[in-house]
Request: fold
Amino acid sequence: ELKVEQNPLFLSMQEGKNYTIYCNYSTTSDRLYWYRQDPGKSLESLFVLLSNGAVKQEGRLMASLDTKARLSTLHITAAVHDLSATYFCAVAVRFGNEKLTFGTGTRLTIIP
Amino acid sequence: DTGVSQDPRHKITKRGQNVTFRCDPISEHNRLYWYRQTLGQGPEFLTYFQNEAQLEKSRLLSDRFSAERPKGSFSTLEIQRTEQGDSAMYLCASSPNRVNTEAFFGQGTRLTVV
Reply:
């Protein structure tokens, strides 16, 4: 059974600082996704990572994938308050099927 | 296109009652998924449709749960004889029939069983 673990589960950081969220998964994967969720809201797609060594950046967020280590990272650069949210990684293991197994999420709070 | 639409947004029901939720996917998206999310957890997969065919169901989907997508467009999720443990956010997602594309999620239906 596929397991997806994120750490840390909670992260409180000051504005302007850098930090990294880690996502480990237990079996070979097709694809890895990062989603953002604001309180009481649905999931917003951030990144789709499809191959070993893939790196994608959008604003202050950068995601990378190491399929050999079964590890993805979400790096936050110079955090701002608007980035406060819960971040989920999710893994798809079957080609052509978007069934996702999600991590437990990282609740990020940016302190002014 | 306004994205994946779910109705209702909130539902409060008494234990033992039946409830039905509706999901309208993004137009022309062949694939439709239902997930359940409890407080402080990531979404858990419930079931998946390709057009009108239900191709996969999770063990989480007990006999009290049934999902349909009769014409390959909107989908319904029915829970019979609701229990307090059914209280959760029920999320619907859709994706096109292309490889390597992400699923787009609706706003969810929050169910509270009292």
